[in-house]
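SEQUENCE-TO-STRUCTURE ENTRY
===========================

Backbone structure tokens: a row of integers, each naming the local backbone shape at its residue.

Task: work out the structure tokens from the sequence, keeping to the layout shown below.
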Amino acid sequence: MRNDIRYGIFLRPDPATCWAVTQTTLALKQQYGFVAAAAFAPHATLIGNFQSSVSEAELITTLDRVFAGVRPYPVYNSGIERAPRGNYWYDVNLDAAGAEPNQPLNEIAARVKSALLPLHVPHNDRFAPNVADYTFAGHIGLASFELIVDPRLSVEVGGYLAELPISAPSSFEARWYSLFQFRADWQGPWWENMPWRHVKSWRAEEVSAGSGDAPRATA
């Protein structure tokens, strides 16, 4: 079926990182005509291309439960990395030492996957795994599906990215999670024509010292 609805559940970086991503993807669009990474709001995907078997309201209720009790934690940006398929991203999956996966980030991704797996309708979307097949590795896309489809510019784009006078913070606090809705022809180059809308955000809250309040997330 064409133009089906899909959902993405994302970690929203801090505004400075978002601004660095926005400038970088615009530079790539102007120089190479790339639109895939710029087709999304800056984000790290927790679950993407989720086809839901329940209503949007029920999906929100499920995610309310997932994000309730989530506290802020640091996310570390290891810099621009060339992915195995020739595309580029900020690697945000590792701990401060750059040695092991960031435990809190990977735990929240696992919670989202566990909650959504029973609600997922399997699909055959191009370059988009089903929930059961998705293995989380935290990253923020910069140059995406164009290089996966045609990697001939990968080396050139890597050099271009290295010389851009744009830098992102080396770390940020994970505080915001968002649900987005997307529509596209998922069998074709869907990133070229993919209207989307923001559905809801959740903000992780610190627990006040000595308050005894449970941690919470708010829209």
Remarks:
- Confidence is low (pLDDT under 50) at residues 209-219.
- DSSP finds five helices and ten strands in the chain.
- The first strand starts at residue 4 and ends at 12.
